[in-house]
């Protein structure tokens, strides 16, 4: 279960590119490893190897826990390893105009907050953080409020269930098992009325 | 009083809601859970929590992502891969789930195997820790990819919490032209709506051109729904679907099959069903498509040119052109390729191999390449039809079933800077190996590129 997320004040860094897919976040060849090895070493591995001055490697970005990116961040593969790489690499919050659905869902389950904001606001943040990497921002999840490097604030939306799970660090499975009676009734209905749904080996 | 008209998605969704919470989350019953070697994180979480698989009879495991595609009689050379393949077999045995391992005659890519074995059926919910689970929506199932934590949750409960997605219907009127494939259709759709264009939505594909497709074509289209950002893609089941499913290993038989078909006939969207968004395309206007960049949304008609870095996305275009080593304004057909790959859950079914073989028959490939069938049964069928000989005589390698160069984690890789014509679904940076450059296209178009050594219009090659 993930560490609960409440208020985060941390250095932020800009990754001004669209469609950053999960193959960029962590190349597939590293996914053989158990989580215990620490996935932070794989974060953006090939991008970092391939270009000088990758934003996360700027000295001012050291210790950054907030990443601001362009549209459709985390698209592509469902690999939860992408979230492990970000979390193990110290990132607790990603802010972008939009996210890959599976990525966002994986993120929430691992204490990584994804915040979607309008394109114009992201553009301003990207410009600001590109000029001054490592500027401090504050994310207040219970209040759903973001404070940018200039001290200006804005509210953000989040699915109430996702918020509760993150703030309280809830275990999904335990929560589901509270519905044992409804689950049993559902199973009975399938078995008696829709037997074709059960696989028929042989 | 008439009930409000419902869509295919509405019907499948509603019949699987076990409980609703005030915050809008639905607890969904899951009918099928597919696993592969990469699912070891999910098993680790299950074990860590001391839980067991609640419905092992609904859970199926197959080795595909990491498996070697040759020398299968020998032990797997890479110890990390050998460990993962063994771990899947051990986890499957320990938890009592069906497992199609490396030496099983049913083995193959999970999204090819499950339909083939009748594990995938219309009207079901089906999940897998893999984003291309959207493939199974071709049968009118609600099928989507999940992450490792969700895999552990489904293993433990056979349930999943989901917020109801929005719906987007894509209607394809008219008929496809000669040598235009399902792959061209989905590339054209993604180019139109964008790589994130369907985020938060379930796509339903409908219209005369979709109804006319065989199951292989429908699977190709639903497979790539995720490349438009969609949660899932769906196509209403019809006679084509029922005939395809009938008699498959795990499918219902006898009276149960009749019962199933009666239920499946009620699944198509009712006239007047509401969708959050609608898009219409003219199938007759779709031409063979290829991608030039590092996102599937960069698909263009084969007659087009590489774009100039202009407008709001100039920076993005320039980055992609640099990575791909292309000059703005050059014709797509001037792009020389180094290798071809025919394979993947998008395009490695028997119909795909036939389409590629039809172009390669009696011709030689001028570049090397791999042909990797989607499953061992597909491989056997292709050999029975003599397709393997056509590929070999053309100079291509005929391999055993698996994901192979689609994701390049089993050792089948492009070298840095090499350029492929590929039937796969992702042209992301480094997807087929670090520094690799991928152009996505249909099997027939890849075959045409193999013969000419550059990206080519299969229509010219076949019609002279
Ligand atoms: S063939 Fe490619 S896309 Fe399909 S499951 Fe395998 S790796 Fe994923």
Q: What's the total count of β strands of chain B?
A: 19
Mean pLDDT of chain B: 97
Gyration radius of chain B, in Å: 21 Å
The CATH top-level class label of chain A: Alpha Beta
CATH uppermost class of the largest domain in chain B: Alpha Beta
- Look up the CATH topology of chain A: Aconitase, domain 4
Greatest contact between two chains? A-B, 62 and 79 residues
Bound molecules: iron/sulfur cluster
Strand count, sense and closure of the main sheet of chain A? 7 strands, mixed
First-residue to last-residue Cα separation of chain B = 60 Å
Considering DSSP H and I runs of 4 or more, what fraction of the residues of chain A is helical? 25-40%
- CATH superfamily annotation of chain A: Aconitase, domain 4
Average pLDDT of chain A, rounded to a whole number, is 94
CATH architecture of the largest domain in chain B: 2-Layer Sandwich
Q: Looking at the structure, what is the overall shape of chain B?
A: globular
- SSE order of chain A: EHHEHEHEHEEEHHH
CATH topology of the largest domain in chain B: Aconitase, domain 3
Structure overview:
The complex is a heterodimer of chains A (202) and B (464). The mean pLDDT of chain A is 94. Chain A has a single domain (7-169), classed as Aconitase, domain 4 (Alpha-Beta Barrel), CATH 3.20.19. Chain A has helices spanning 22-25, 45-50, 81-88, 101-108, 119-131, 160-168, 172-177, 180-193, and strands spanning 7-15, 66-69, 93-96, 113-116, 136-140, 145-147, 153-155. Chain A has 202 residues and is α/β, with parallel strands linked by helices. A seven-stranded mixed sheet of chain A has the order 4-3-2-1-5-6-7, sandwiched between helices. By secondary structure, chain B is α/β, with parallel strands linked by helices. Chain B folds into three domains: 9-165 and 238-262, Aconitase, domain 3 (2-Layer Sandwich), CATH 3.30.499.10; 166-235 and 269-285, Aconitase, Domain 2 (3-Layer(aba) Sandwich), CATH 3.40.1060; 289-463, Aconitase, domain 3, CATH 3.30.499. In chain B, 32% of the residues lie in helices and 17% in strands. Chain B has helices at residues 8-14, 40-48, 79-95, 110-116, 148-157, 182-193, 208-211, 215-223, 239-245, 254-265, 314-324, 350-360, 376-384, 387-393, 443-452, 458-463, and strands at 17-20, 25-29, 32-35, 59-62, 98-100, 125-128, 142-145, 159-163, 166-173, 201-206, 232-234, 277-282, 289-291, 299-301, 339-342, 369-371, 397-398, 419-422, 437-440. In chain B, the strands form five sheets. Chain B has a five-stranded parallel sheet with strand order 5-4-3-6-7, with helices on both faces. In chain B, α2 (40-48) packs across α5, α6 runs parallel beside α8 and α12 runs parallel beside α15. Chain B is globular. Chains A and B meet through α2, α4, α6, α7 and α8 of A and β2, α2, α3, α5 and β8 of B. The structure holds iron/sulfur cluster. Residues 64-65, 109, 111, 130, 132, 344-345, 403, 406-407, 425 of chain B line the site of iron/sulfur cluster.
